[in-house]
Amino acid sequence: MIVQLFWLYYAIPMLFGINLGSNWWIGVIAIGLNYGAYLSEVVRGSILSVAKGQTEAATALNMSSFQRMRLVIFPQAVRMMLPEFGNYTIQMLKGTSLVSLIGLTDVLYYGDIMRSTNLDQAPLIYLLVLVMYFILALPLIWLTRKGESISKKGVASG
Amino acid sequence: MNYWSWETFSEALPMVLQGLGITVGLTFSCYAFALLFGFVWTFLRRIPNKLIHWIVTWTMEFIRSTPPLVQLFFIFYAWPMIPGIGVTLSPFTSAILGLGLHFSTYIGEIYRSGIESVDKGQWEASRALNFSVFDKWKKIILPQALPPTIPMLGNYFIIMFKEVPLASTIGVAGILHMANTYGARNWAYLEPLTIVGIIFLLLSYPSAILIKKLEVKMNTRFDKKAALENVKKGAVM
Amino acid sequence: MSDTIKEPIVQFIDVHKSFGDVKVLKGIDLDIKPGEKVAVIGPSGSGKTTIIRMLMTLEEPTSGDILVEGNNLWKMSKKGKQVRANEKHLRNIRGDIGMVFQHFNLFPHMSILDNCMTAPVNVKKEDKNEVRERSIQMLERVGLGDKLNNYPSQLSGGQKQRVAMARALVMRPKIMLFDEVTSALDPELVGEVLEVIRDIAKNDDMAMVLVTHEMDFALDIADKVLFLDEGVIAEQGTASDVIEHSENERLQTFLRRFRSV
Predict the structure, then answer these.
(1) Tell me, what's the pLDDT at C165?
(2) Which residues in chain B have their CB less than 8 angstroms from residue A141's CB?
(3) Which residue from B20, B59, B114, B233 has the highest number of Cβ atoms inside 10 Å of its Cβ?
(4) What CATH number is associated with residue B191?
(5) Residue B202 in contact with residue A41, Cβ under 8 Å?
(6) Which residues pair with C228 in a beta bridge?
(7) Is B1 within a domain?
């Protein structure tokens, strides 16, 4: 992802001659595209992992393919997606730290600036940055665990 | 302004390739470290003490949910400043420690899932046959727990390979670092960075296919029937 | 008299089915009359399940025709030519057929009542309150009136299978298919499920096709028994015809094996 971020950072203004105003959008595009790809895999995998018998039962009840997806498959697949979505959101949170490298002023960016003026305070500063990320991640960790227990209940698989 | 120049491309190519050895070497080193340290996590978590278990679990959670980039900075910039235990580490060593440690928490989880997937009867059988703790792990549990985790472990190899360029931020001269150096020197980033992208694509795509194949093979080998046979075998042994 | 001249509701005409290189069915000809109870017996792998799965449109025949009330199930005419049936055509015919599966296939994210209500409400667009009434009645009939708001995971296998039957019955099919509905159950739960089937067979006028290994039960309730062997119907007739008067060696061996157990 860091390669893609750099590539977009240098290539977009060069290739399209557009200045996006800030690097904000470059970060959004790079991170969004990356995790969009991962999440689409999660969605696909969850839908495929709903047991075949569910589709057959829905067919036997004469549901249309849209009804099968809406009433039977998707509600079950969503439960399976929850923990993965939580996990990837944490990954994404971690991934945002890369934008400090293209000059966006995030937590890490300020941490770096502080360190450059107080070299011997580096341990404290970076520890503080780490703790901040961790505090941001805590609700996501909680959600992921919650999602895991939801997804274990009430889903037919196999 | 000229957008793309093949001249720059061919000029940048050898320079970027110089970094390839370092990138690949670092990937293998980090991976080896993570594989090894993953065991440490797994076994620490099995210590039957609530406090230790709690500490280990949340340490893993902390390492896993904070950015590896910041962890790299911490080890490279902050570690030497800590009075008493601070040591200055080379960028390469810092990267092995930082990325290796970060991913060892994931690898540890994989080991754990493998161990938990071993049938309860196997533990009971090895107790009934009076195996020593060491023999139980070496001869019964690990031979069954590890092979099914191979595809997942393989996936992490590719993931780590893609994360290794982070090390360029602390000056490890891998391909991304070389590309940036070239870019800064000639004010031409597009071509060298494109080369880096292509190299990653060329290396990680075939490995991904290889791992997918491995996965299919493992799945057919370790299906339920096989697991049942193992139970039988375990009982007979 | 009226019984004998009734048009068959289902007809199989020289139906073949292969999975890859494996020929499972090698020419099935079969008539089922409205209200007729048909039991399909035979060794495992003989293609019993495949017959009803094709009728339920879960499996497409390799060749041959299946007619439901005179309509070709898997083929339709388009500009005077016979072409492969599309989903719309299948849905039109499928509405008359219901199925109960070996592994229940209840929807785990819905309560028992919702499992029964979802199809009539969403597929047949029937009135919700009326469907609710009917579903509750049906669940009471299968002895689960006190579990309406439970979820499938809270039920035993036998209870799940009874819900599955109620779910199929609420759709008011003209043909009900039972695919080894007791095979996945613990032995002590088989009885309660068979009781419900017996009740349906006695009191409802729909046609039923039972694929089963419960030999005595099948022979007891069936108007017609089919013995399927190596992809063909090796023997068919009334229960007493098939058991007592058949000279088919393999059938006799098959029956002996089951009855001695």
Answers:
(1) 95
(2) 61, 65
(3) B114
(4) 1.10.3720.10
(5) no
(6) C233
(7) no
Number of structural domains chain B divides into: 1
Domain containing B34: what range?
7-236
Between residues B237 and C23, the one the model is more confident about: C23
CATH of A2-152, one of 3.40.50.150, 1.10.3720.10, 1.10.150.20, 3.30.465.10: 1.10.3720.10
Question: What would the two tokens of residue A89 be?
Answer: 């959101």
Q: Most B CBs within 10 Å: which of A3, A91, A101, as the mutation test of the B interface?
A: A3
Domains of chain C: 34-57+173-260 (3.40.50.300)
Q: Contacts of residue A98 in chain B, CB cutoff 8 Å? A: 67, 69
Domain ranges of chain A: 2-152
Chain A residues whose C-beta sits inside 8 Å of any chain B C-beta: 1-4, 6-7, 10-11, 14-15, 90, 93-98, 100-101, 108, 111-112, 115, 119-123, 125-127, 129-130, 133-134, 137, 140-141
Subunit partners of chain B (3 or more CB pairs within 8 A): A
Q: Is residue B2 part of a domain?
A: no
Considering only CB atoms, C91 lies closest to which of A53, A64, A156, namely A64
How many whole angstroms separate alpha carbon B211 and alpha carbon B208? 5
Distance CA C141, CA A98 (A): 63
**Rounded distance between C-alpha atoms, residue A99 and residue A140, angstroms:** 21
Contacts with A5 (C-beta within 8 Å, 6 or more apart), sequence order: A26, A27, A30, A31, A98, A99, A101, A102
Top residue of A49, A56, A61 to mutate, by most chain C CBs within 10 Å, is A61
How large is the C-alpha radius of gyration of chain A? 21
Per-residue model confidence as pLDDT tens digits over A5-50: 888 888 777 666 666 666 888 888 889 998 998 899 889 988 988 8
Q: What is the pLDDT of residue A19?
A: 65
